[in-house]
Write a structure and sequence with these properties.
By secondary structure, this protein is an alpha/beta fold. Helix 6 runs parallel beside helix 8.
């Protein structure tokens, strides 16, 4: 198989579809016999993942690694920013936290200009020595010219890799001519030489009607339009931007098990619930409406990057009362990670690891207390769910991962009732009963046995076969690849990638 130069997808704006297009090309290249790997030098997201060696990385690159058919590694996302407030983020470097930084300190400091870019280049080089080609992704807008000298993720990284770069534009939000032309015009001459194509994304209607627009863009920019990708609704690929949650504020649906996922202000890892959204037995939606919470069959408290602040908001908004009342009326209440911490008697932060709130009473649903600690736990886990009754041959046949800062202990004289028994001997979570339990394990709903338990007593359709989430995701990657391949000029792209 011939060697290909790296390719990179940058955007005219955030949420232009770079991550999805990147995932599509990862699968296309794999289908065509190459060994691709994804790379994004710097990602900002509260959706993260624990790798096999205990590192933390953004989930978008995990999705892209799955599309490539390879195991995720922190080299694919060497710098991850996890917002802790409006102007502050925790910086994860090569899988491990190195501190909390204000936006000013991060962008103006020596850390950004030198150390992080060097680390990103080293991670890229390690990937390039093992995979062919590297499918790179930029961040936000490619033309943030005020940040050009501090850039480590867009054209500075493209120049380092000599990557064939493609500009992804979201036509659905309007202004595509100005955004494409302006983005390319604001590049330096050296950067424009790397720009090999324009991809118009999220097109609605008859593509033939855009032929004139295509020619206008090519004449204005001198760059060919290599693809016009239609908007799709029927392909489900995990997304990382929280803006997608605005499309998931859906009302209750008759005939399905309705799951209300509490919309926290600092919610993290909302990808935990993609399997519930895909499973035909369930109808999941995000809400901060007390009436919708009371009407749902199941209420899920998700993870949080700031447990105490979100817990305070639940109390002040009346949502805490709605959740506890729902449980008393027979609804199921489940907590994951930060949500699990909130379900206890008390949450304390004696070292101000999260912020200025020292302690708050929890929801009082589980007999436990939590101490927030500065040390972060990141690890993958094979576990048995509820004593492994789901499998006599391999009791540890479930998978999940932990990312949390906190230690949860049962109150005096309460015996352990673990949700999960980890294969290394640890116990995780507390199982009060089928209607009330919680644990630290992200990805727990990806396991069929957990979803089956969640549906017990609520299943309204007995004819639905067992849902295989892993097979479902593979099908979605293949459908995405087929959709994108059909609407981009792959002959031209391969010709560019084979150039030295």
């Amino acid at each position: 198989m011939s060697h290909l130069r790296s390719l990179m997808f940058v955007g005219t704006c955030s949420d232009a579809g770079k991550s999805i297009v990147n995932a599509a090309f990862c699968r296309i290249l794999k289908q065509d016999g190459y060994q691709p790997a994804p790379f994004k030098a710097q990602n900002m997201s509260l959706n993260s993942f624990s790798t096999r060696d205990g590192g933390e990385m953004g989930r978008a690159q995990v999705v892209q690694a799955e599309a490539c058919g390879i195991e995720p590694h922190t080299d694919m996302n060497p710098v991850l920013l996890k917002p802790t407030g409006d102007c502050t983020s925790q910086v994860i470097l090569e899988g491990h936290p190195v501190g909390n930084y204000s936006a000013k300190a991060y962008f103006d400091g020596k850390l950004q200009k030198d150390h992080l870019f060097t680390a990103a280049c080293q991670a890229y080089d390690r990937l390039k020595s093992r995979f062919n080609p590297i499918v790179m992704e930029g961040a936000g807008s490619v033309s943030e010219i005020n940040l050009r000298d501090r850039d480590i993720v867009n054209m500075r990284m493209a120049r380092y890799a000599n990557a064939a770069t493609f500009l992804v534009a979201d036509i659905d939000r309007g202004g595509v001519f100005a955004s494409v032309y302006g983005s390319i015009l604001l590049l330096t001459e050296e950067e424009r030489k790397l720009m090999k194509g324009i991809i118009i994304n999220k097109f609605r209607g008859d593509i033939e009607l855009f032929n004139e627009g295509k020619h206008i863009l090519e004449k204005l920019t001198g760059v060919p339009v290599v693809g016009i990708i239609p908007y799709f609704h029927d392909i489900q690929i995990e997304e990382e931007d929280s803006v997608v949650l605005e499309r998931k504020h859906r009302s209750l649906e008759k005939g399905k098990i309705n799951i209300a996922i509490v919309l926290l202000r600092h919610m993290s890892n909302f990808t935990d619930f993609d399997a519930l959204e895909a499973d035909p037995r369930f109808h999941s939606f995000y809400t901060n409406d007390a009436n919708e919470i009371r009407q749902a069959d199941i209420i899920v408290l998700p993870g949080s990057k700031n447990t105490l602040d979100d817990l305070l908001h639940l109390r002040e908004s009346g949502l805490a009362i709605a959740i506890t009342e729902a449980y008393k009326t027979g609804k199921k209440v489940i907590g994951i990670c930060g949500g699990y911490q909130m379900m206890g008697i008390r949450v304390e932060d004696p070292t101000n690891a999260e912020g200025q709130i020292a302690a708050l009473p929890g929801l009082g649903l589980l007999p436990q207390t939590t101490i927030i600690e500065a040390t972060k736990v990141t690890r993958q886990s094979h576990f048995s769910f509820l004593n492994g009754v789901n499998s006599s041959q391999n009791p540890f046949n479930c998978q999940g991962y932990e990312i949390h800062m906190g230690r949860t202990n049962l109150i005096d004289n309460v015996s352990p009732r673990p949700v999960a028994r980890i294969d290394d001997g640890r116990l995780d979570g507390y199982y009060l009963d089928a209607h009330c339990w919680g644990c630290y394990l992200h990805g727990i709903f990806d396991n069929a046995s957990v979803r089956d338990h969640l549906a017990e007593g609520l299943t309204t359709r007995t004819s639905i076969p067992t849902f295989d989430y892993t097979a479902f995701k593979e099908e979605q990657y293949n459908r995405l690849a087929r959709h994108v391949r059909q609407h981009v000029n792959m002959d031209y792209i391969y010709r560019i990638l084979k150039e030295e």
